[in-house]
Write a structure and sequence with these properties.
Layout (H helix, E strand, L loop, with lengths): L3 E2 L3 E2 L25 E5 L7 H7 L2 H4 L2 E5 L7 H7 L5 E4 L1 H9 L4 E6 L1 E2 L8 E5 L14 E4 L4 H14 L6 E4 L5 H7 L12 H8 L2 E6 H5 L8 E5 H6 L1 H20 L1 H12 L8 H4 L2 E2 L7 H13 L25
Parallel strand pairs: 3-4, 9-10
Antiparallel strand pairs: 1-2, 5-12, 6-12, 7-13, 8-11
Helix pairs in contact: 1-10, 5-13, 6-7, 10-11
Length: about 325
Amino acid sequence: MYRKIKRGVFIVLLSVAWVGAANSPVQGAEAKKDLFVIRSSAQTVFNEFHAAALKGFFEEEGLAIEFLGLVEGLSKYQMLEQRLLDVVDGHPDQTAKARLAGIRAIAVVPGMVDHPKYPHVRYYAREGGTVKSLDDLIGKKVGIMNYASCYEGYLKTYLNRKGIKGDVEWVVLAAGGQQEQALTQGLIDLTTSHPPFGSVADKAGGNKQIATSWDIFKSPAAGLSVRVFHEDFIKEHPDKVRAFARAMYKARKWIDENMEEAVPLVSEALGLDPAIVNAEWDGRWYAETPGFVKEDIDLWFEISEALGYWDHGDIRPEEIYTNEFAPEEIK
């Protein structure tokens, strides 16, 4: 069973094979027997999932996190629907697409947000090349990992707002680091670098950051990621979802207040190369509020509808998230 979404995106409710293996040291098998285990796909980059585990915030709430195989993009939502995963992460537009496909996914807590010092996306061009600013993209090759709001979507929004018309060639380079390598080799003109790959572009030499996602939107909403459960899981385990929300809020606050400690702690646990990971480049900023800010979700809908991901009215912003489980603020 499936339902078509615009742009040819399908959610097919069939089994999805695990890709790769979890490299996190925090495994469900090691969890204490009295802890409730919540299953997530493997997290391969710095985030608050690992901080919550390593700092004991999950255990304080009677939880353990189990990182299973690596699943990317909308495939996570397929696994959520099949109840093979309990929680998934993504952006608001992915949750909306999943719900349009019939998957009863609900975002319960925010994660990463955009920040001027720790931007969600960094745009790199070659020094001395023809791309001096984002105004110069018409007729150029831009690297993206896939078609999504935070890849070509942000740039299309920028061009539309500036009234700049013409075609851009979007080059899909799905593996991390491929965009930056292609830029260095002169095969593309611009990257849409997500952490930590902006650091890769910077260290390669000859590349120059010309803009960031913060420059386009000047809003934390541009980087907003969401942590999502299935409606059935929420009905069955509301106390566990509430505990998860508290643990993640503690982790977000701790990261923002202890960035220089947080990044090496999580990076070492994941085996990430310290040469390309540091607080400035991979130190993502996290939502300071316990729950969602309505205007942040609204921005993602504005971007997605303008790009034709779905028509206005197909789904409402309030259908994809809840603040029911938002904990009290930590002072």
